[in-house]
Amino acid sequence: PSPATAAAAPATPLIIGHRGAAGLAPENTLEAVDRADRAGVDWVEVDVQRSKDGVLVLMHDQDLVRTTDARTVFPGRAPWKVGDFTYAELSRLRAGASPAWKGTGYASARIPTLGQLLDRLDRNGQGLLLEVKWPGNFPGVTQDILRTLDRKGWLDTHHIDKRLYVISFQAAALKDVHRRRPAVRLGICDETPTTGELASYARFVDVVNPDQRGLTRTYVDRAHALKGTHGRPLKLWPWTVNTAAPARTLAAWGVDGITTDVPGTIGRAVGRG
Ligand code: G3P
Ligand code: CA
């Protein structure tokens, strides 16, 4: 094709370390964030919940069983829901207690607070996709998150423009953040939203985080034809892509970011690092 008709090659997608870098160290720990940093990864995604006494902590599941030794440390506390434990109790748990990390040196990793995470990201120079996890379990959690971000300086122009996205599967939580802090960029997690749903999300988000399995080139083009709430083409950052071939396909289709447990591997597969 002549230069006038040749399609521009898509930009290399942003690589986002999923739960820090869940394939390299226990998920949602500072150790995982540091592993992503050492792999040259500028952005990490983490899941945020709240302890019984109001401390924001990193944890994916609604209960502590899969990723910690809560059953052993607190045998009488079934069903081990995150919000039933004080921060002092959570800080006694090992966040690398699942068999996968046995003997790796990461087994004694702890559950970090959101504040500790933000300090670590500032030190490393990394950006954050902060997922508001299970907000229905934690009334008022979006206000708590905004308060912590503000206290740590993460709502200044630099962080808002360059380092931060707030994401969630729950549109209501994102709309609440949008209403309180319209400058904060948002991303909605959903499996494979229809074109109509994409258009309705674009009223309050800049990014859609879909399941990689539902994507096609046409789907990516349709999303990019929409504008996100801050006026730029709607971005697509699919999850969770852990092998090279699908990562290369998604990159060729022009997705804007790839969320992965193994950020070094996927970064190399798509030509980053
Ligand atoms: O970035 C989106 C991704 O984190 C959603 O999946 O279940 O790992 O929180 P999940
Ligand atoms: Ca997540």
TrEMBL record:
Keyword Signal: yes
GO biological process: one example: lipid metabolic process
Matching InterPro entries: GP_PDE_dom (IPR030395), PLC-like_Pdiesterase_TIM-brl (IPR017946)
GO molecular function: phosphoric diester hydrolase activity
Domain GP-PDE: 13-270
Alphabetical keyword list: Signal
Record-given protein name: Glycerophosphodiester phosphodiesterase
Natural source organism: Streptomyces antibioticus
Taxonomic path: Bacteria, Bacillati, Actinomycetota, Actinomycetes, Kitasatosporales
